[in-house]
Design goal:
This protein has about 110 residues and is mostly helical. The protein has one domain (about 1-110). The chain contains four helices and no strands. The longest helix is centred in the C-terminal third of the chain and has 36 residues, at about 75-110.
């Protein structure tokens, strides 16, 4: 489980920074690699609880890092952290959904073989 959470943290943070600074900046197309990564994390997990926790961790860090690294406002960044955390929670909910779908697909593929 630690490997999955570590990988989710690294990928979430990396994708958040890359999407806010370098690749597909300001485009909804950045949702495509985010969704694919979330589905793959769920597919990698053997149980639904693992998929939920990994997906939540991935989604929170992705959304939080994306908003944090893309912030260019004039107000101090510390005053914006609660808002960024709230968006991180939305990302966690989305990550849970992606993780569950990926895990579900893994189970369906395993049963049909």
């Amino acid at each position: 489980m630690i490997k999955k959470l570590s990988a989710a943290a690294l990928v979430g943070i990396a994708l958040g920074i890359i999407a806010s600074r370098y690749l597909l900046v300001g485009s909804f197309l950045s949702l495509i690699p985010w969704g694919i990564a979330g589905l793959l994390f769920g597919f990698w997990c053997l149980t639904y609880p693992t998929a939920i926790s990994t997906g939540a961790f991935y989604g929170f860090l992705l959304a939080f890092t994306f908003t944090l690294s893309g912030y260019q406002g004039s107000a101090p960044i510390l005053s914006r952290l609660p808002f960024f955390a709230a968006l991180g929670i939305v990302g966690a909910v989305c990550g849970i959904g992606l993780g569950l779908v990926g895990s579900f697909v893994r189970r369906k593929i395993g049963r049909s073989s």
